[in-house]
Amino acid sequence: MTPPLLMIAATLGASAMAGLIRVLTTELHPFEVVFFRNLFGLIALTPWLWSIGLRPFRTRNYGLHGLRLMTNITAMLLFFSAVTLAPLAQVVSLGFAAPLFATLFAIVILHERVRGRRWMALGFGFVGTLLILRPGFQALDAGSLMALGSAVAWALSIIIIKLLSRTESAVDITAIAMVLLTPVSLLPALFVWQWPTLEQWLILPFLGILGTIGHLCMGEAFRRADTSALMPLEFTKLIWTAAIGFVFFAEAPDVWVWIGATVIFTSTIYIAWRERRIRATSAAATTAIKTAPPA
Questions:
Q1: Residue 8: closest CA among 252, 231, 261
Q2: Contact residues for 275 (Cβ-Cβ < 8 A; gap 6+)
Q3: CA quadruple 181, 187, 192, 198: dihedral, nearest 10
Q4: Using one digit for the tens of pLDDT, what is the confidence trace for 92-120?
Q5: In this predicted model, what pLDDT tens digit does every residue of 48-78 receive, in sequence order?
Q6: Are 258 and 108 in contact (CB under 8 A)?
Q7: How many CB atoms lie under 10 A from the CB of residue 295?
Q8: Cα separation of 34 and 76, whole Å?
Q9: Does a structural domain hold residue 138?
Q10: Average pLDDT over residues 36-45
C-alpha cells in the first residue's frame, strides 16, 4: 500500500474503533472497555514485543515513563467516556485540538520559541474549538468537555514523549507503554467491573486489532513519506466518524462542528508545516557552518 492509503486505513481503523466503543459502552462501563482495548492490543503486539526482548526496560527514565503512562491512560479514559455522551464526529473534532495544546505546552515546559505566525495559527485553532463548543450559545455538555480534556491529556503525553525521545528510541518508548497500559488500566476497571456477555466477548478483540492496525499503518506511512504530505489525510477521520455516526447511531453533526473542525485542523497543519520548515532551515544552516572552509 502507498503511504496515503496507509494513512487513510489508519484513520478508518480509528473511526471504526470509536464506533465499537459506542456499541460496547451501552452496557459496559467505558473504564472496562479501555482495559479490554489495551489487553487485546497487547496480545496483538505480543510477537513484536517478544522479538525486541527486555531491552526497553533497561531505561533509567522510569519517572518520565510513569508520567507518560498516567497522561496516556487519562486521555483514554476521558475519550472513551466522551464517546458515550457526545456525537462521535464532535468528539473527534475536539480531539484535533491536541496538537494545539501540545504546542502551547512546548512553549511553557520545553521553552520552545514560537514567533508571530505560529501564535496567530494557535489562536486561530482555539477559535475553532470555541466554534464547536459555542459557550454562551449552548450548554457545555459533559461529553464535549471530556473530549477536550482528553486532548489536553494527550498533548501532555506528546510533550513527555518528546522529552523521552532525547535519550530513548521510539520503539523502546512504545514497547514500555504497551506492556504497562494493560495492568494500569485494569485498576479503574475493577471498580466498575461486570463480566461481558458472549456477544461482547466476540466484539472486544476487534478493539485491540483495529487499534494495533491503525498504529502500524500510521507508523509505516510516516516512515515512508513526509509528515506534512500525510497530515491533511488525518481529516478523513472526521468523515469516517460522521458517516458511522449517521448510519449506525442516527447522528448528524451540525454545521458548526464541520466549520470548527476545519479551522482547528487548518491551524494544526500550518503549525506543523512551520515547525518542519524552521527545523529544515536550522539544519541547513548548521550543515553550512560545519562544511564552510576555514577563514
A1: 231
A2: 118
A3: 50
A4: 999 988 888 988 888 888 888 777 777 88
A5: 888 888 777 777 888 888 999 999 999 999 9
A6: no
A7: 3
A8: 7
A9: yes
A10: 90
* Cα of 183 vs its chain's centroid, Å: 20
Q: Are 235 and 14 in contact (CB under 8 A)?
A: no
> Which residue in the block uniquely carries the three cell numbers 489495551?
38
Q: How far is CA 150 from CA 59, 103, 126, in A?
A: 27, 16, 15
User: What's the pTM value of the predicted model, to 2 decimals?
Assistant: 0.88
**Looking at residue 293, what DSSP letter applies?**
P
The DSSP H or E segment spanning 93 is helix 88-95
Residue 106: the pLDDT is: 86
Number of structural domains the chain divides into: 1
Residue-range definition of the domain harbouring residue 95: 3-190+202-280
- Is 104 within the bounds of a domain? yes
Residue 197 lies in a domain: no
User: Whose grid coordinates read 539544519?
Assistant: 283
**Which band of pLDDT confidence, cut at 50, 70 and 90, is reported for residue 281?**
low
Cα four-point dihedral sign 102, 104, 106, 108: negative
- Closest of 274, 263, 294, 288 to residue 129, by C-alpha: 263
